[in-house]
Amino acid sequence: MFAGTGNDAAEESFIGYPAAYPYVVGVAAADESGKVGKFSEHGNYVDLAAPGLDVPTWCDATFRSYCDNSGTSLATAIASASAALIWSAHPDWTANQVLASLIETAGRDWAKDDPSTYLGYGLIRPRKVLEDSNFNPGAAGTDPLARENARGVTGVGTDNSPSPSASTSSQPPKNASGGQTSAAGSSADSSDDNTTMWVALGAAAAVLVIGGGAFAVVRSRRGV
Known about the structure:
CATH topology: Rossmann fold
CATH architecture: 3-Layer(aba) Sandwich
Shape: globular
Number of strands: 6
Structural class: alpha/beta
Helix content: 25-40%
CATH class: Alpha Beta
Mean pLDDT: 76
Distance between the termini: 17 Å
Number of domains: 1
């Protein structure tokens, strides 16, 4: 299951459920540059990030005009749609492998084994999986979030002050809570990836039912 981490970062003690439950992928909201939204909840239950600021959505029931909206629900829709897109291309993969591929290819400029409390393992980049026909998603039965699921929720609400701009260094400074606030990406084509992600996945967000905050992808092998 994918769930938005929540939009109440101003509430220092707030923990976003169901995102904070074990075996739920917590999705944070980031802007076009890879910076986390100020409203986006943070903590060690944040696993991935997706575009969630200034996303075009319908203004009214007539579907005749767009308005820019923001929220972790929007980011969650894009993240879950990305997982479904990858699974459709690799129907023999398990849910663990689909999630592992999103984590492995996520845009970040910090060590993968030290996830950010703001953006988790980084910004989703499904194109990185889809363009590689030989991509290795890892073992079918290995939970890519085993460490997080085992230790539970810790260190929530310790810092509400994300940096004002995305870092471009290969190892950005960390905040007091041990998490990074931006995912600029260390590769030369990171900006191109972000643009491609917005263009390719913006349509997906527009056609999904936005606002529920949780979108399920069953964490088991298909057909079982």
